[in-house]
């Protein structure tokens, strides 16, 4: 007994499987994309690798690393750099988070106005902002006058030429770098999550702690990392607003290069700063990744 196969009726699926691939614009091969990007890649490589190579070459002369690491002022400046950067990053992220939440809760027109105010530090030079803070924080400046006028203090506080003034100036400059990543994370939150939580009886604090804060951790992490990296290279702010004990590593690099004309030492300091920051960034990212895997598991 023989059986014959019943032909399968053509359907859109079988027709699509058996049909020739549609003819459209031919896909550009990967080599063509690399060829188009080659000028940009070469330019970036030269622009980045040439200075780094120059620093590496110069830093190997005259026992530069041994000399700078034995300099107590260099060690003190390096410690100042990471201490001031950490405090500035913490203050910037906290204030930036509050500002981002305020902007997020406002309507479109008010958002534009508030974003413009946040961007004001980008529209003025660093030196101008620092001298403005020097005027505000001096003994007879606006801040001390207001504190004394309100009866909070009996005399002027030492608000200038110290670490507090340096951190204030740095936070003012760094705020936009924290506000925008955090606002982007807030804007990506689905409004229905908050509505569902409130409909189930969750209060304002519970909604923030269980929904908003966990979902904005990536934005906060990005903001903190960006702000910290930028803050390690501050140069003008410690000079204008800080005291003799508040100099950062960028000031030491300038001292070695301009005052001592020790370019080998300056190169060694620059590479040491780059290396330490890179290690800290890698450790920070690893901690965040481990925390994410722990929560997922």
UniProtKB/TrEMBL annotation:
CDD domains cross-referenced by the UniProt entry: TM_PBP2 (cd06261)
Pfam family, one: BPD_transp_1
Biological-process GO terms, alphabetical: transmembrane transport
Transmembrane segments: 32-52, 84-105, 112-136, 164-189, 210-243, 263-284
Lipid bilayer topology: Multi-pass membrane protein
The keyword Acetylation is assigned to this record: no
Cellular localization per UniProt: Cell membrane
Major localisation: membrane
UniProt domain ABC transmembrane type-1: residue ranges: 78-281
Taxonomic superkingdom: Bacteria
Record key words, sorted: Cell membrane, Membrane, Transmembrane, Transmembrane helix, Transport
GO cellular component: plasma membrane
Protein family per UniProt: Belongs to the binding-protein-dependent transport system permease family. CysTW subfamily.
Name the record gives this protein: ABC transporter permease
Organism of provenance: Wenjunlia tyrosinilytica
Organism ancestry: Bacteria, Bacillati, Actinomycetota, Actinomycetes, Kitasatosporales
């Amino acid at each position: 007994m023989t059986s014959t196969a019943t032909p399968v009726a053509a359907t859109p699926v079988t027709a699509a499987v058996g049909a020739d691939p549609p003819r459209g614009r031919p896909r550009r091969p990967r080599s063509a994309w690399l060829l188009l990007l080659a000028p940009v890649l070469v330019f970036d490589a030269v622009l980045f690798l040439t200075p780094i190579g120059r620093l590496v070459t110069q830093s190997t002369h005259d026992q530069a690393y041994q000399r700078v690491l034995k300099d107590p002022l260099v060690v003190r400046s390096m410690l100042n750099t990471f201490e001031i950067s950490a405090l500035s990053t913490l203050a910037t992220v906290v204030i930036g988070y509050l500002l981002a939440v305020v902007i997020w809760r406002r309507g479109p027109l008010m958002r534009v106005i508030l974003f413009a105010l946040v961007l004001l530090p980008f529209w003025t030079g660093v030196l101008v902002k620092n001298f403005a803070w020097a005027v505000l924080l001096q003994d007879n400046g606006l801040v001390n006058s207001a504190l004394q006028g309100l009866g909070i203090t009996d005399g002027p506080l030492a608000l200038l030429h110290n670490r507090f003034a340096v951190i204030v100036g740095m936070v003012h400059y760094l705020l936009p770098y924290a506000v925008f990543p955090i606002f982007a994370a807030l804007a990506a939150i689905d409004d229905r999550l908050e509505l569902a939580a409130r409909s189930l009886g969750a209060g304002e604090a519970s909604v923030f702690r269980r929904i908003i804060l966990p979902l904005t951790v990536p934005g906060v992490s990005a903001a903190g990392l960006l702000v910290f990296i930028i803050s390690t290279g501050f140069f003008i702010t410690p000079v204008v607003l800080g005291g003799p004990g508040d100099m950062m590593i960028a000031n030491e690099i300038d001292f070695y290069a301009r005052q001592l004309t020790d370019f080998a030492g300056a190169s060694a300091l620059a590479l040491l700063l780059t290396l330490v920051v890179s290690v800290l960034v890698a450790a920070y990212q690893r901690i965040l990744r481990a925390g994410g895997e722990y929560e997922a598991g």
